[in-house]
Structures are given as structure tokens and as C-alpha cells.
From TrEMBL:
Name of this chain's protein: Acyl-CoA dehydrogenase
Single GO MF annotation: acyl-CoA dehydrogenase activity
Pfam families attached to this UniProt entry: ACAD9-ACADV_C (PF21343), Acyl-CoA_dh_1 (PF00441), Acyl-CoA_dh_M (PF02770), Acyl-CoA_dh_N (PF02771)
Cited InterPro entries: ACAD9/ACADV-like_C (IPR049448), Acyl-CoA_Oxase/DH_mid-dom (IPR006091), Acyl-CoA_Oxase/DH_mid-dom_sf (IPR046373), AcylCo_DH-like_C (IPR036250), AcylCo_DH/oxidase_C (IPR009075), AcylCoA_DH/ox_N (IPR013786), AcylCoA_DH/ox_N_sf (IPR037069), AcylCoA_DH/oxidase_NM_dom_sf (IPR009100)
Keyword hit for Flavoprotein: yes
Keywords annotated in UniProt: FAD, Flavoprotein, Mitochondrion, Oxidoreductase, Transit peptide
Span of the signal peptide: none
SUPFAM superfamilies for this protein: Acyl-CoA dehydrogenase C-terminal domain-like (SSF47203), Acyl-CoA dehydrogenase NM domain-like (SSF56645)
Any one annotated GO CC term: mitochondrion
Record's subcellular location: Mitochondrion
Amino acid sequence: MLRTTQVFSLINKTARRLAICSRYASSSSITDAPEHEEQVAGAASKKLPPRLPLAKNFFVGLVDNELLAFPEVINREDMSRLQNELLPLKNFFTEDLSNETLSGESLPKDLPENLKTLGLYGLNVSKDFDGKGWGYCESLMATEPESAVTDVALGLLGHRAIVDVIQELGTDEQKSQLLTKLGNGSLVASEAIFEFDGAEDDFFNTTAHHELDTHTWVLNGGKAFVICPPKTSEAAHLFLVVAQTSKANVKTEAARATTIFLVDSTMSGVKIGDRHSTIGCGASSIRHVQFENVRVPQSCILGHAHEGNVVADTLLKSSRLRNSMVGLGLAKNILNEISQECIDRKLCGVVMKDLESVQTHLAKSYLSVYSMESMIYMTAGILDEFNYPDIVVESAMTKYFTLKELLNISIRALDLIGPKSLIAGQTTEQFFRNAAHLYTQGESIDNLSIFIALAGLQHAGTLMGDTIRKQRNPLYNPGHIFSKFMERSTIDSPVTKMDCKEHVHPTLEPAALCLEHSVARLQMCVDLLFTRYGSAIVERHNESRRIADMATTIYAMFASLARASRSYCIGLQHADHEMLTAMSVCVDGRDKVLTLTKEIFNGSYVNNDNNLQRLSKQLVKSKGYFAMHPLTYNF
């Protein structure tokens, strides 16, 4: 017989299961009633009030449990309509155009016309300007078919990101002049941000100075790695150019600033150079663009002069998320390819799929792809569901995780396929080249990890400032120090009160506990690093990378947990395996976070950081490898 406590526990779990499942059932079944259809459509068009940042609050030990329901911004009726509209796209990119059908280093000549017919230039352009008016979730779903062809997806990525930033920050004049053309493909847009050689003392070598007499800006410099979308011969080109500017009447370093210009390729002085020959994405048109005394009117400034950082935040938010979708498409292609290879191929008389090592490779790649997809649509859902969400860290985490795992998956593919993958033209060789290209294209992954850490630490510093001051001055705050010693929570056994298990399916309670412990460990590490280094934490890049890896892993755990809970509650196909997937993601994430936590708590003399710094200094001093040959005698 069951004891009384067990009976109450069983009743409690059953009630939770019914409550959580009814939440999803009610949200999806309301469209069954005709009288409610207009209410649902109207509610979907209105965004909810802003919420506190999700990922940034991980750094202070807080979790937004309500988001564990996974954002549902597309109702069932709209989802059916969207899936029907995506059928022509899927047919085109699987039958008419695919990575296998691409030949040489150029895209088909009729591709731009096909893209215009399919409406791919205007997916996210507002309906007021003859676009489809789709939000982030819908437009990302619509880009999934094209993500199967990396070169096409990479070309359209920047175009859509620029559309997003113009719609959010552009003037009415800029919207009326540009959005309709951008939506129908008569004007295509590219980001012109990066340069061959970074400026030593300034932000950029590309500069712009203001002429008061003519009220124009004179732009000079060059941009590299500009990805040009497929376009027809008569279509014009729009470049989003980031340039170094100086504030008037300011003589100190505070005068340095950046301004973002929208520059048409037809302007005098704009020269589009030859294509770059890159390691991957060979069919993409990646070029150098030169600006020589280009006179840009005041109306072509996006945002305000000298406030390029404000516009850049909005641009990067969209660009990083859409870049992640390109990586996800390539990762799925690689996983499907190696899965089929392992099913069809035998090794020493044994089918590869039956080998334990191969099974581990495939499962780890699947976990990574599942986490990528969950993070992308979690971030997109927050953008679509809430007004002005602070998701700059979430978008950075999504790109950071996606591109790192994409490269790992491509390397696993080489390991599974073997020497055959060395032959030029093999599918796996193309996959690896494209993965390496996406990994290095644009902003550095290393710098992105430091950005994630510093953005989170900045947020935590504003909330934990008083506590940190007390801990850094123990003699003046003995009571606070004594209370810290009396705390029962440790890195091995964290004590939490987050109650994540109350907001997911009861079967996922162990996974929710892994999430809670990981968030608690991240908060402990943030507290320790502030106490140990204070504001000098910005110079501790090794610690910043560890913090970034911890926070990114936690976000992957959170998104996967929320997605699997929703899938099981509404009864999606393979939902039982999604539960297993979420459990595996959370267990792996918990172990990774615990390892990084111990490295931070051990300090630089125990975790080997100090030794590595000493070796690096000697390496620089010797200008290269300095160890003597192992067979050398000392006479």
C-alpha cells in the first residue's frame, strides 16, 4: 500500500500534469469555435507588454518560468495557411535548386526572377509596402527551405536584416522610398561593415565628414566581405555602411563615434570590386566595395548621426538570428547526409548504424541541432510576442551556440565518412567548407563570447552592486560576511527556489532540476568573479569565455526543456523522444556548467590559466616555437 505522503505526491503530480496540458490545449483549441476566430486573430496582432530580460537574469539567478510554456505566436489557422504557402518554396529548393544541382562558382541566371516570383525578397516587408508582413517566426519558417541551399540563404540574410532595421528605425521617407523596392527585388540590400585591416586607433578606416554648406556627408574608404544577394541585371544595390565620424566641437576621444548610412550603388564614387575567393560558399557573390568621395545626403542616415551603436544593436539582433537559421539549415543537411551514409554503409561486415561510437556521434549531432532550433524559435517567439524585448544577449547566444556546434557537426561528418571526404567535390567536403565559412564570416566567435559575458555581467552589476561592495570590504561588513559563511548552498549541492518543475510536464522534473542548479551555479560564479576582480573582470577574458559558455548552455537547456514540454503536452509526433532529447540536453548541460564552475572557483593557479599565460609570453618573446629538439644534447 502507498503511504499517505506518496498518495499526496501522486495527486499533486497528476494535477500539475492536467494543468499544464490544459494550458496548451486551451491555447490551441480556441480556434475551433467560429465566434472566437476574430478575437484570436486580433490578439495575435497585438504584442504583450515588455518582460524582464530572460538570459541576462540568468546571471543573477533568476528564471522567467512563464516562458517555459514556449512562445506560441502563430495560431493554428495561420499555421495551416503558412504551411500551404511554403509548399512552392519547398518544391523549388528540393527539386529545381539544391546544393547538389549547383555547379561551378555561380548561381543560376534565372534564380533572381524565381526568387521574385516566390516573394522571397519581401517576406518580412510590411503589408503597407506590398510585402508579406511576416514576423520573425513566420519569416524564419519561410527561410527554412532556402537554408538547404547555403549560398542563396547567405545572400538573402543581410537583405532581410536591413529590412528589419529600416522598418524599426528608419524615417517615414526612407520607408516609403526603399521598402517597396526591397520587397519586390528591384533593390537588394547588403551589409558593408567589415574591413580587411582593422583600424589601430579608431573604430573603422572608412570615414565620413559633414559639410555644413551643402548639408551632405562625404564618405571615403573600403569595405570587404560584402555579401551581394542574387539580383536581376536592372536591379540596384543598397549598402548599409558603418563609418567613423567625429562630433563637432568636441576635441577629446569622446568625439569619436560611428554613423550608419544607406548608400545606393548608383551614387557617384561607389565602386563594386571583384569577388572574393573564399573557403566555402563559392557560389555566393562576396565582394569588396570602395567609396571614393561619395556625397551622401542627410536623409540617407539611418537613425541619428554619431549614434551608430544604437542602430547596430537592432541590426545585429536580426542579423545574428537569421545567421543562426542559415547555420541550422546546413546542420540539418549534414545530419541527414551522415545518417543516410551510416544506414547504407557497412564497416568490417557491420552496418555503421549499429556501431556504438557511430550512434554516439549521431546522437550528439542530433542534440545540437535540436538545441539550435529550440533557441532560434524561442528567441523569435519573444521578439514577436512582446513589445521591445531585450534579447540582444539571446540572439548573440543563439548565433554563438549554432555556429560552434555546426563546425563540430561538420568535423564529426568527416570522421564518420573517412578518407573519402578528402576528395574535392564530395558532399561532406562542401559541407565542411561552408560550415567553416559561416563560422568565420562576419564577427569573430571569440569576440561574440566575450560580448555575451560582459553584457550579462553589466546587467548583474547593476543589481548586485551593493552586495559586491560589502563583499569586497569584509572588515566593514562582518555581518554580511558571516551570513555568507552560513549559507547552505554550494556548487556541488545548490539550493534553489526557482520552481521550474511547476511549469513543465512532471516527467521533466529531473531536467528542470538540472536547469535550476545550472542557473544557481552561474549566479555563484558571477558573485565570486565580481568579488575577486571587481571592475577588472572586463580584462579577464578566460573567465569571460567560461561565463559565456555557461550562460549559453543554460539558454540551450531552457529552450529545449520548454519545447519538449510543449510537444508532449499537445501530443506531437515523436514527443516521447523529444522528452528524452530534453533530458539529454539538460544532463549534458548540467555537467558542462559544473565543470566550468569548478574551473572558476579553483582560480588561475589551479585551472592552468596562469601556466598558459606564462607559456604565451615566452612564445611571443621567442617569436614562435621555442622548445629545443628532443634529441639535442647539452654540452
